[in-house]
Description:
By secondary structure, this protein is α/β, with parallel strands linked by helices. It has one domain (about 30-55, about 70-215): P-loop containing nucleotide triphosphate hydrolases (Rossmann fold, 3-Layer(aba) Sandwich), CATH 3.40.50. It contains seven helices and ten strands. A hairpin with a 2-residue loop joins strand 1 and strand 2. The two termini are about 20 Å apart. The mean pLDDT is about 95. The chain binds adenosine-5'-diphosphate and magnesium ion. Magnesium ion binds near residues 44 and 166.
Amino acid sequence: MEDPLLSLRGIYKRIDGEEILKGIDLDVYRxxxxxxxxxxxxxxxxxxxxxxxxxxxxxxxxxxxxREIDFGNEDELSKIRSRKLGFxxxxxxxxxxxxxxxxxxxxxxxxxxxxxxxxxxxxxxxESMGLKGKERRKPYQLSGGEQQRVAVARALANDxxxxxxxxxxxxxxxxxxxxxxxxxxxxxxxxxxxVMVTHEEHLARRTSRILEMKDGRIxx
Length: 220
Ligand SMILES: Nc1ncnc2c1ncn2[C@@H]1O[C@H](COP(=O)(O)OP(=O)(O)O)[C@@H](O)[C@H]1O
Ligand SMILES: [Mg+2]
């Protein structure tokens, strides 16, 4: 079998004496669509943040593309985050003063992509999200579902190896939840690796693998 894209080995996370993650071992392979389910407070977000190199474990190792991550090397962390990882959160965190197009361009600027190229790619991504004609709108001029689709386009800006999504539909009505879920399924069909935290069982059932967390541990 091919090497995992992302591996966690013996991950513990402790905050203020509380043990939030208690020995997590996990391999994510290219092309996986993994959902992480479990009750509120079970450690799903904490796990996703460590997978996304946004937080460091108290103990244990994270390997990305076979290389162990050095959590002391902020330069390396930020390089991997911006080149290889795409994040989507429950709240879109779009920049309110920028247009949809500009919001999608921002991550590309971090990698030194020219303005012309960034603008062209951002327009293509927005079109693929069904947002053609709305490129110039500011986030407040878009519906909640549209805002989240801009956030998905932004996460795809640098063609990441993996999409990490924390309750991406948590703030959407059922119609928009379905639209975003269909986009995720299509991205996965195209080969994109996705890890999605959700508390909606019916969404988890449509992914290729379900991981259930309970009290800081993986139970299935
Ligand atoms: N920054 C933090 N400081 C203190 N406690 C935290 C912090 N982040 C998470 N926790 C605690 O860790 C546990 C797991 O949280 P979290 O990973 O957010 O769970 P989930 O996403 O499954 O709801 C909870 O008990 C939460 O209160
Ligand atoms: Mg959470």
